[in-house]
């Protein structure tokens, strides 16, 4: 998952970049609005953290240009301003969420996870190999027959389908599904157990599994599935 962080406060920018990389996100940075637009139009980001007060081009203008171009990636606005008008304007321009400074990194990470989960709702049906996942109703069917998944199994499948064609690491998958509750020492086998149970439900009549294991990396649902 690739995130662009747009912030002109170098201290905060460095902190955000370090925190996100520790959570195994791909991170690009920009310290002004013009550079941010150049990067956004060049790279397909999964999410943007966008400060409002920026040199050269302010965050609201960047937001407007992005939405005018038809790009619909989630955008979380960051600002030190307390003016309600800024919040209203940002949401009217197409921001998905708003976080006022100062904020805790735990709250930011929770917002990011929630926004990435909601991102799938822009395409309400995700498909692979006879499996259809309905993000709005949270139903899953296999060859037009409904199958019952646990909450965690649904979250795993949704995340893998959202990243269809891209390898997802065990750690990144666990962080996304379990969030701050995930302890890599005491919960190291949680992902494999849930993947095993999920495969039993999805691959009962298939010789080729929908969810494939990439040794030493994690899992993938291939683009051709």
Q: And the CATH topology of the largest domain? A: Rossmann fold
Q: Any idea what the shape is?
A: elongated
Sheet with the most strands? 5 strands, parallel
**What is the count of β-strands?**
12
Number of discrete helical segments: 8
Instruction: Report helical residue fraction.
Output: 40-55%
C-alpha-based Rg, rounded: 19 Å
How many individual domains? 2
Strand-residue proportion: 15-25%
Spell the H/E element sequence: EHEHEHEHEHEEEEHEHHEE
CATH architecture label of the largest domain: 3-Layer(aba) Sandwich
Name the CATH superfamily assignment of the largest domain: Response regulator
Report on the structure:
This protein is an alpha/beta fold. The chain folds into 2 domains: 2-119, Rossmann fold (3-Layer(aba) Sandwich), CATH 3.40.50.2300; 124-220, Arc Repressor Mutant, subunit A (Orthogonal Bundle), CATH 1.10.10.10. The protein contains 8 helices and 12 strands. It has helices at residues 10-22, 33-40, 59-68, 84-93, 105-119, 151-162, 170-178, 190-202; strands at residues 2-6, 26-30, 47-51, 75-79, 97-100, 125-128, 131-134, 139-142, 145-147, 168-169, 212-214, 218-220. It is elongated. The two termini are 20 Å apart.
SSE map:
Layout: E1 2-6, H1 10-22, E2 26-30, H2 33-40, E3 47-51, H3 59-68, E4 75-79, H4 84-93, E5 97-100, H5 105-119, E6 125-128, E7 131-134, E8 139-142, E9 145-147, H6 151-162, E10 168-169, H7 170-178, H8 190-202, E11 212-214, E12 218-220
Parallel strand pairs: 1-2, 1-3, 3-4, 4-5
Antiparallel strand pairs: 6-7, 7-8, 8-9, 10-12, 11-12
Helix pairs in contact: 2-3, 6-7, 6-8
């Amino acid at each position: 998952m690739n995130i662009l962080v747009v912030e002109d406060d170098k201290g905060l920018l460095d902190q955000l970049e370090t925190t996100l990389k520790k959570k195994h996100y791909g991170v690009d940075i920009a310290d002004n609005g013009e550079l941010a637009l150049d990067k956004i139009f060049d790279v397909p980001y999964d999410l943007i953290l966008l400060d409002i007060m920026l040199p050269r081009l302010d965050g609201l203008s960047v937001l407007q240009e992005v939405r005018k171009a038809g790009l619909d990636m989630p955008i979380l606005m960051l600002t030190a301003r307390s003016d309600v008008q800024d919040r209203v304007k940002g949401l009217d321009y197409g921001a998905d969420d708003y976080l006022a400074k100062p904020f805790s990194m735990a709250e930011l990470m929770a917002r990011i996870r929630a926004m990435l989960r909601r991102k799938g709702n822009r395409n309400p049906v995700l498909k692979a190999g006879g499996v259809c996942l309905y993000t709005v109703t949270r139903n899953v069917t296999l060859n037009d027959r409904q199958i019952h998944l646990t909450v965690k199994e649904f979250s795993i499948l949704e995340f893998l389908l959202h990243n269809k064609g891209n390898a997802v690491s065990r750690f990144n998958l666990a962080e996304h599904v379990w969030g701050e509750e995930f302890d890599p020492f005491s919960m190291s086998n949680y992902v494999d157990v849930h993947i095993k149970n999920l495969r039993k439900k999805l691959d009962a009549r298939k010789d080729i599994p929908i969810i494939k294991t990439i040794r030493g990396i994690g899992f993938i649902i291939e683009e051709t599935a």
